[in-house]
Write a structure and sequence with these properties.
The protein has about 190 residues and is of the alpha+beta class. It has helices at about 1-15, 85-90, 110-120, 120-145, 150-160, 160-165, 170-175, 180-190, and strands at about 30-35, 40, 50-55, 60-65, 70-75, 80, 95-100, 105-110. About 50% of the residues lie in helices and about 20% in strands. Strand 4 and strand 5 form a beta hairpin. The mean pLDDT is about 90.
Length: about 190
Amino acid sequence: MQNNIDFLTRFLVDQYSFPAEDTLLLSKFKDVSVKKNSRLLTSGEVCQYAYFICSGCLRTYFINEKGEEKTRYIAFENKFVSAFASFITQAPSAEYVQALEDSALLRIRQTDFYNLVDTNTIFAKLYRQSLEQSQVFATWRVETMISMTAKERYQNLLERMPQVVSRLSNKHVASFLGITQESLSRLKKKE
């Protein structure tokens, strides 16, 4: 656990000038290790946790009426992940949260997280910036999905998030791009 708390502390010190000696504030984060393909949240459950990724990869996704997985978000190290609509509203989630790699995580309960945001200026700043980054990411996703061809989306993904293509299976990359695995294979052959 200490290594993961140290990982989060370094991130907060580097990104937010967090006082390294304030590790007591981080005591609400709990160490979680999950295996590849483990689900951390299932559709219909209320999301109680946000996760900080120390190592590994998480995704959030939906399953449509045809039973197809549609990936909304993929995150690697140094990112917070949750089914944020459910986390914020405490309503049942429409999406799933899954580990795409063996992952070392720190999780924090929704109530503890908001207590940190309300009582600590650094966590308030982290939360605001996380929300801003989520909005920018969501706008990018919508723009690419409605204004780009599959080839353009793939090229854009290679430029913005190359680790998605290099670290994940074609199944998950295709789900993120909104295309079939066969289409992704054709795009990769043309590289």
